[in-house]
Amino acid sequence: MDVLLLVLVGAVAGMLAGLFGIGGGVVIVPVLAFVFEHQGVAGDALMHCAIGTSLATIAFTAMSSVRAHHARGSIRWPVFRQLAPGIVVGAAGGAGVAHGLASETLEVLFGLFLLFVAFQMMIPPPAAAGQRQPPATAWMLLAGLGIGALSSLFGIGGGAISVPFLTWCGLPPVQAVATAAAIGLPIALAGTAGYIVTGLQAPALPPWSLGYVVFPAFAGIVAASMLFAPLGARLAHRLKPLVLRRAFGALLALFGIRMLLG
Residue range 22-35: average pLDDT? Predict the structure, then answer.
């Protein structure tokens, strides 16, 4: 049953990565927390393992999504290059911050973050800001630092934060989604490395773990997510997904409330 659930959540995460550029961690983390709790993972490591494993899966989902968006010429690579250095530093730092927090604290913070994303998903996305150009490189580095740190802390690909920011910078919605998908790759790689290093000496980890990354759960999710990410990217170019955004936002609100209630 756990294997089927992980494959299903991998498929959903892949679709969301391609469709919204959000990486899928907002679904992966609460499901992994549920699965690990069901399997008896110690409470002190529960959320850390869920977040670290989520970031590891997002690295592969992002590669599949980026390939599909790049083939359609939708990624603004100059904007990506401005954000990437700050993203890497912030993501590595976010993993260090998470290591110092109790699992219960991470669960509450993640629940609040889900409610924030749910609200964001249920309102119409902002229109691109006309001819507005991205800020100067120094400000883009700072923006990347914040996006990377928050994304790594919560085990997400960063799209819930970077898509609104990129839209504000003047990117059309499809380009904002595609560029956010590309941003998810350095977030996932740097964040995963951070969760592996900080978790190497952690006690009571599940079997087949490297730091806070649990490989059996990782494999089940990745197998499905890489197959479905290109489908989500195709849908992003064909659909007006406002209704889908709102339905997804309602689901995230339920997840968030569940996390807050423990």
Answer: 80
